[in-house]
Amino acid sequence: MSGGATAAGGEPDQKQDHGNDHGHSHYDSPASRRPRSKMELRTMALEAALVDNDVVSTDAIDEFVDYLEHRIGPHHGARVVAKAWTDPAFRERLLDDGTAAIAELGISGPEGNVRVVANTPEVHNMVVCTLCSCYPWPLLGLPPIWYKSFAYRSRAVAEPRAVLHEFGVDLDSDLAIRVWDSSAEVRYLVLPERPPGTDALGEDELAALVTRDSMIGTGLVAVSA
Amino acid sequence: MDGIHDMGGMHGFGPVVTDDGESTHHEPWEVRAQVITLLAAGLSMRAAIEALDPATYLSSSYYERWLRAGEAGFVGRGIVSEGDLARWRDVFEHDALAQPPISSSPELVAMVAGLGPAHFEPATDARHSAGDRVAVRRMRPPIHHRCPRYVRGATGTVERVVGGDIVPAPPGSDRVVEPIYTIEFSASELFGEADHEQGSHTVLIDLFERYLEPAP
Hints:
Chain A is an alpha/beta fold.
């Protein structure tokens, strides 16, 4: 990704911060000597008040956070894509009923009513949620910051080629683009095209080539990914 | 309601790709804030987030919006009080070692573990079929809905009948199930002829039957 694209408007989510700190404590530990941010204090206060009033429980919060942060992610989607590339009958079932087909691989969960749309030499698919952040959690985990950005939400439906260009993807002008705006309870996953020259690779090796962006439609799968 | 969250087609937000790269969030509290509010709200936060005032919405980060919407919604529904929140904030601000109280609920843990995908009901009474031409109604709903402005008034083609689902409505409303359709629109129908895009595209979006009418 090009690192030069600094947002002119400076969206609140876009920070020049590479410290994606997935710490093991619930909140920043005092040992880090980092002052708690205002929002962190407010989150702690909301949790404390809700726990105190018996609205939520600590173990349920921990369970859900652990699920979202550690038990789902793009590796699940990559497995599904690799299987679809190597097993034509599975591919057919996947495109026909995504939710049922991924359940065959033991993949299911909230935000998991899935429709899989396949890229072909004629059609490229791309997924957005203009209203917020709908995303196929069980297959891809939590959405990246850019997926939730105002820039992506506003532009993907109106100028997908310009957006793809920012991801380094330039498609032929005669290729049809279908942009899927997830506005109800269906969550969309793009089945990218299998790159040429990969006939000798097994499912695991193929899965290792599949990027998250290729399953959102803002990337393509390359052999030397 | 037609809020600032309805961003499809807007200008002015700059480029998409930034230095954030692959990150899903910046700090540990963020996902926790989302989870806390989801659980306390009964898994439905859309209406509350959309009800944030536009200036706050635009100047808050993604997870900040969840937090602010949770605070406002829970105080509004009497689940917590402003006093509770202020008292706890004071505790954490002045004691770097303080942590929220710890509780356990096997039932709530089981509920979380059992969360599954949304299910649709059969849309046996659907008015439209795949291939039909339909138009999106002109409207200005004052309540929570899922019909973005950029498709209103446009004519498209039913790509698929998805199934029946509960019509989005404010908490406490009657449960109404209605067919949902995937509608495909040409980019020129939605945005006019683009002079800057080399090549065409279509947009597909899932819409409830009440947002649609037969094409003129």
